[in-house]
Design brief:
By secondary structure, the chain is an all-beta fold. The chain is built from three helices and 97 strands.
Length: 1287
């Protein structure tokens, strides 16, 4: 195709041409007949982006393209030319740089020509390319009624940028009468003709003016002068515009539909904008917008302007079985049901499943995305929509399969809108929908008996073997049985013993022939899964269904074992099963096991290629073993391209592709092979590409025999965790583009003197002070790694007779891990990287390498190298914390309106915070600082949060960086908020980077829960809850003379306990104001002349975090209208002796602040519950110790509480003995870290602290009416409406 563009410039002069403004072109075709092309459907809100790959780096980047007008929504750095409709720019790191400001200009003479019957847009720009020539975009548009794809790059010849575009807009339009209809994707048509009024709409304008207007039809003759007027002003002598039905409705760049009409002289004088509003009336009233430059603008909000919403017609049962209702979906027809009620037999119901009704029905029934409609068989104009297609079917907790359409037309009671509710039931014969009832609030209920609602029968096989009847492949899981030991799955308060395809070696509570045994904390064992070797295969998933002993009277436990594919780990890691409760307290459990035996045969090829100049390209970091890459289409529907790199797509239920395919297209529930893995990457004129060939049969008339896929890679050092972009398909070749750091050439370099510049801040990092000495670290097996920085190892540490910068010493051998290099790289997140290559041989054609990632860790953490892991058996990963990698650490505090939040005490320097989930995921976090390096965890140096899955041998897999600490915490109403951003690409939405949100919640009782996992958003934001006193706001306390009432202690604290007068430099402090020098004041200052200035007496006290702040005021006059004042912050210091001593923190004119810490102030806060932490080594903040005797009321309350707990204990013991398994789904109000239960403190308006119970794994049975309160003036009060709820 590129050759066609080489000849295009010479052929333009003799080709038939058409010049037009806007998007409509009329041109004489090859047969002499006029042809009209309408490109308005290609006009979008955001610019189209086209990756440009060229031999010249000055012409390689991203082309921003707009059709029918100038580019919008771009920054000046991306495109400074406001008139440009095509602009080429490149992103270097986080900065955009414009390469060609105007590759095409909106005001230039854009021309349409026909070449061999194909329309070609010639779009000249304003930016000079060479003397006498400007850049020009050559856009060839290929007609395909079923495709709406993105433009793609064809080639760059001289000054011409050649693009291709497969689209329905490239098909000529010859029909008239399109003023109110417009084709959209998927065969859908916008049809606005039902909005036409029989006469006219009367619309109020500004300044009291009135207009007559009609939609999709001319105004009746008696209202406007002239013939076929489109609109006029009331009582005017001329119309605003004439109605012309041949003028095309088009898409506007801002997302609405627009229709224009012209006056008699041919100029546009009327514009009507149609906005999607599914809730607007079917016959809506137009609104006047404005008059500007001779054009009158009107707006119409209507459901007829709403595009179709793609809906997946699949639902999943609680056991994970897929039910597909798409066979019931109609394309050009519908299901019809007559109302059986005697008074309503004239009513007909039109229904479609997961798709809109067709245009052949009465107009209200195809208003936008209507999926069901009620009509009168005698009068079709009385039809009413019953709801829009917006959501897929769902399975309720009762097992019903339901499809609901909402937001239909208004009911007779305008508070409600009509909706339809369809309950699908399995039946061996198709019965179609049957009307059941219509409620007073306009809910129409139907029953539908159909084979489509039946669960598909899975393939089954005995002895842990099953044949996939589709691929004719036999899965054999017999080898997953561990013949030596059972697998142990440890939880917080219980554990599981697991072995599949064979019995447990040790009986479970004397019961033999068991697959899964639950072991409670007290040692009680329950056989929750008896042995079953009958393997099932259905829709890409392998499973074993196990039943066990009774857990409730008449209810047996069950385990659904799901076996998922995971390609073999080249490092020899062993996968381990994960078991968790369903969370419903109904004795159902799930066992998930990723295992290579659950994979069909797959193919893997070498993933490297070397250029003629010796540069090595290695795409193996993009090759995945357990999850696939996903490139979605521009349509935004569930379809997309699933692919892997240099290996087959990982087989699973959502990737039910052929076992040898490297890429496959998912269209709803269909999977189409786009090419098999055959060869590794290639270099085509220095462009890195990967080809998958011999896919499904190609049905294009002039295409090849089989479908193929071509992935073009572009080097981008900053794209660490990027995802591929789907460009489109032409002649059965699917094109993808991938900007990634893995595509960057690896060239041996030297002489960069171990320094690098941060391109954003211009700060230069220099690691040369680490050079000239050897550094050591070890792995878990005591193998020693000796490393040099930007230099060779010393003569005493040479290994393998190779001059090396990294060496591995084991008990049996010494291996060179790479030669020295001084090229220091600056990576995403501020990490610095050194790469050593050319070590000892490692396999065929490879040598050992070392990657050292330097980062700025937490202050006080151990500096030096730390072994992380070895990738592919050849690449050693080292993380190294050093102050030399620090530029400016993020402040871990913030202030607002004089209030300060400081989270720095939570910074970890020796080990990370952890939050573990029962499904095997582990979250690692630090506060305001990068994670502390640890063996086997490779989340990218510098990341502050990470998630990984732990295998049986301790190896971490599927690491995902959850962001970097780049901003300080912000204060919120409940405490503080900390955000980490810029993590790895979100697996579900590759265009979005993973991030972390930590909500620090005030806990005034000093409890530090550590991070507790809360939820995960579709955009991969991982949320955590963290209770700590560090974010508690100030709470004013009562002052009575020399005593302060501390609400947390429920009593007064005497300040006499700190002794009498104390000297602090030139200041004297006596908190009770009894000192000899201050004349009854608490704080005073001696001047140079020997006189004393009073700073006042105690006026208020505020409990703020770990400090009791005393405020003194009313002192002597300091300056005009101002007096002296002071603050004394009382805090706990358990290491001090006696009363401690105050120190001056800050001094400013007329004011001083002192800090006074003492062990006498470490008072026990015995009103706080003991909460478990998410890991045992999280430090608990110092708590106050109560120095005063317990009150009588507290003693009485304690006796009452003891009685309650005694009765509760007796009931618990009885229940545990009778039904031990039931106790797993019961929780006392104190949560366990294993279940990830959370206790949230929130301050009420009255100042009380309420505890809200939440639970994630498994579900806690606790009534909402039960409350646990910490009263301000009382001890704990348990409001137990039903005491059994707490058991």
């Amino acid at each position: 195709m590129l050759a066609r563009f080489v000849l295009l410039a010479a052929g333009v002069a003799c080709a038939a041409t058409a010049v037009s403004s806007h998007c409509l072109y009329t041109i004489t075709g090859d047969n002499g007949d006029p042809q009209t092309y309408d490109f308005s459907s290609l006009a979008t809100i955001d610019p189209w982006t086209v990756p440009i790959v060229s031999d010249s780096t000055q012409k390689s980047g991203t082309l921003f393209l707009s059709v029918c007008g100038p580019l919008k929504g771009l920054t000046k750095a991306q495109c400074p030319d406001e008139d440009a409709s095509g602009c080429l720019a490149r992103k270097d790191g986080d900065q955009w740089r414009t390469l060609v400001p105007s590759a095409a200009a909106a005001t230039a003479n854009t021309t349409l020509v026909l070449r061999d019957g194909t329309p070609v847009l010639i779009m000249p720009g304003h930016t000079p390319c060479e003397p006498g020539r400007n850049y020009t975009i050559i856009l060839e548009l290929l007609c395909n009624q079923d495709k709406v794809l993105a433009p793609f790059f064809l080639g760059l010849t001289g000054c011409e940028i050649a693009l291709g575009w497969i689209t329905a807009a490239a098909c000529p339009t010859t029909k008239t009468g399109r003023a109110c209809s417009l084709a959209a994707s998927g065969g859908y048509w916008f049809d606005l003709y039902p909005l036409a009024n029989d006469t006219a709409y009367r619309v109020a304008g500004t300044d009291g003016r009135q207009f007559y207007l009609n939609l999709c039809a001319p105004v009746a003759g008696r209202f406007c002068p002239g013939q076929k007027a489109a609109a006029c002003e009331v009582k005017a002598k001329t119309s605003l515009a004439r109605f012309d039905d041949s003028v095309t409705l088009r898409h506007a760049p801002n997302g609405y539909l627009v229709s224009t009409q012209r006056s008699d002289n041919g100029s546009v004088t009327l514009e009507i904008r149609y906005y999607c509003d599914q809730l607007a009336p079917l016959r809506t009233q137009p609104k006047f917008i404005k008059q500007d430059n001779g054009i009158t603008y009107f707006a119409v909000h209507s459901p007829y302007a709403c595009p179709p919403v793609p809906v997946d017609c699949v639902a999943y049962t609680r056991q994970g079985v897929k039910i597909d209702l798409s066979p019931l979906r109609k394309t050009n027809s519908y299901w019809t049901v007559r109302d059986p009620r005697s008074n309503y037999t004239h009513q007909l119901y039109y229904i479609n499943v997961c798709a809109p009704l067709p245009r052949s029905l009465p107009s209200p029934c195809h208003a936008g995305n209507v999926g069901a409609c009620i009509s009168n068989s005698n009068r079709s104009d009385l039809a009413q929509p019953l709801g829009a297609v917006e959501h897929p079917p769902r399975v309720t907790k009762d097992g019903d399969l339901i499809l609901t359409y909402r937001d239909g037309s208004l009911c007779p009671d305008p508070k409600n809108r009509r909706k339809i509710h369809i309950n699908f039931k399995c039946h061996d014969v198709e019965r179609g929908p049957e009307f059941l009832v219509a409620s007073d609030d306009c809910v129409y209920s139907f029953m539908w008996l159909t084979p489509a609602a039946c669960e598909p029968k899975p393939d089954q096989g005995d002895n842990c073997r099953v044949l996939d009847s589709r691929m004719l492949y036999s899965f054999d899981l017999r080898s997953i049985y561990n013949k030596m030991n059972d697998y142990e799955v440890q939880m917080e308060s219980y554990s599981y013993r697991v072995n599949l395809c064979g019995p447990l070696h040790k009986p479970c509570n004397n019961v033999k022939n068991v697959n899964v045994c639950l072991v409670l904390k007290n040692g009680t064992e329950i056989a929750i899964g008896m042995r079953n070797d009958r393997l099932e295969y259905s829709d890409g998933r392998l499973s074993l269904r196990l039943t066990g002993q009774e857990c409730l009277p008449g209810v047996k436990s069950s385990v659904t074992a799901i076996l998922a594919c995971e390609h073999i780990d080249p490092d020899g890691g062993v996968t381990q099963p994960h078991v968790f409760a369903s969370g419903a307290g109904d004795c159902n459990y799930y066992l998930v096991w990723n295992h290579p035996r659950a994979c069909p045969p797959y193919k893997e090829v070498p993933c490297t290629v070397q250029s003629e100049d010796g540069a090595l390209y290695d795409l193996s970091p993009l090759s995945r073993r357990s999850i696939n890459h996903m490139a979605r289409t521009r349509l935004g529907n569930p379809s997309g391209v699933l692919l892997n790199v240099c290996r087959s797509v990982v087989f699973n239920r959502d990737a039910n592709c052929e076992s040898t395919s490297g890429a496959c297209l998912r269209e709803g529930d269909k999977f189409i092979n786009l090419g098999n893995v055959q060869t590794g990457p290639t270099l085509d004129r220095n462009v890195l590409k990967l080809h998958y060939k011999e896919g499904a049969l190609c049905h294009a008339p002039q295409g090849p025999v089989h479908v193929t896929t071509t992935i073009t890679f572009l080097c981008d050092e900053g794209a660490i965790e990027s995802q591929p972009e789907y460009l489109g398909e032409f002649q059965c070749d699917h094109a993808l583009f991938w900007r990634t750091s893995a595509a960057c050439p690896q060239r041996p370099v030297s002489g960069h003197n171990c320094s690098v510049l941060n391109p954003s801040s211009k700060f230069r990092f220099d690691l040369s002070p680490l050079a000239g000495q050897d550094h050591e670290t070890t792995d878990d097996f005591d193998n020693k790694f000796v490393l040099a920085v930007c230099s060779d190892l010393s003569s005493t540490n040479k290994c393998s007779n190779i001059t090396s910068a990294a060496c591995l010493t084991t008990k049996t051998e010494e291996l060179s891990l790479g030669r020295s290099s001084s090229e220091l790289r600056f990576l995403h997140g501020g990490t610095l990287e050194l790469r050593y290559k050319g070590g000892d041989a490692c396999g065929v054609g490879r040598t050992r390498e070392t990657i050292i990632e330097f980062f700025c860790g937490a202050e006080g953490s151990l500096e030096g190298p730390r072994f992380v892991e070895t990738l592919q058996g050849c690449i050693t990963i080292i993380h190294w914390h050093t102050r030399l990698a620090c530029e400016q650490p993020v402040a871990c505090s913030n202030s607002l309106l004089g209030l300060q939040t400081d989270l720095s005490p939570l910074i970890r320097v020796t080990q990370n915070y952890r939050a573990e989930l029962p499904d095997g995921r582990i979250y690692f976090l630090n506060v305001c600082r990068p994670l502390v390096p640890q063996s086997k965890l490779n989340c990218g140096a510098g990341a502050a949060a990470c998630v990984a899955r732990k295998l049986a041998g301790g190896k971490m897999v599927e690491e995902l960086s959850l962001g970097y600490a780049s901003t300080s915490p912000t204060m919120t109403a409940d405490g503080a908020l900390l955000i980490y951003s810029g993590g790895s690409a979100c697996p579900r939405r590759p265009s979005v980077n993973a991030s972390t949100r930590i909500d620090f919640i005030c806990d005034p009782y000093g409890v530090n829960s550590g991070p507790i996992f809360d939820k995960e958003s579709p955009e991969c934001q991982y949320s955590f809850i963290w209770h700590t006193s560090l974010v508690c706001g100030p709470e004013e306390e009562e002052v009575n003379g020399c005593k302060v009432y501390v609400s947390q202690l429920k009593r007064f604290l005497s300040l006499d306990s700190l002794g009498g007068q104390v000297e602090v430099g030139k200041y004297t402090i006596d908190l009770c104001g009894r000192g000899r020098d201050c004349s009854g004041n608490a704080v005073c200052q001696r001047s140079a002349e020997g006189t004393w200035a009073s700073y006042g007496i105690l006026q208020k006290a505020v409990l703020y975090g770990d400090y009791l702040k005393l405020y003194f005021g009313g002192g002597a006059t300091c300056m005009t209208n101002k007096t002296y004042g002071a603050e004394v912050w009382l805090g706990c210091d358990s290491k001090s002796n006696g009363t401690g001593a105050p120190r001056l923190l800050m001094e400013r004119p007329c004011y001083a602040i002192f800090e006074w810490k003492s062990d006498a102030l470490c008072l026990q806060r015995n009103a706080s519950p003991t909460l478990p932490t998410s890991q045992p080594d999280i430090p608990v903040e110092p708590a106050l110790q109560d120095a005063m005797p317990a009150s009588h009321s507290f003693a009485v309350a304690s006796l009452v509480l003891c009685s309650i707990f005694t009765v509760a204990a007796v009931i618990v013991i009885f229940v545990r003995r009778r039904y031990p398994l039931l106790c797993l789904s019961w929780r006392f109000p104190w949560p366990s870290s294993a279940s990830h239960t959370q206790v949230h403190y929130s301050r009420s308006k009255q100042g009380d602290f309420a505890v809200k119970q939440e639970d994630l794994w498994p579900k806690v049975i606790l009534e909402k009416s039960n409350k646990l309160k910490i009263q301000r003036n009382n001890i704990f009060v348990f409001l137990l409406k039903n005491s059994h709820s707490f058991l």
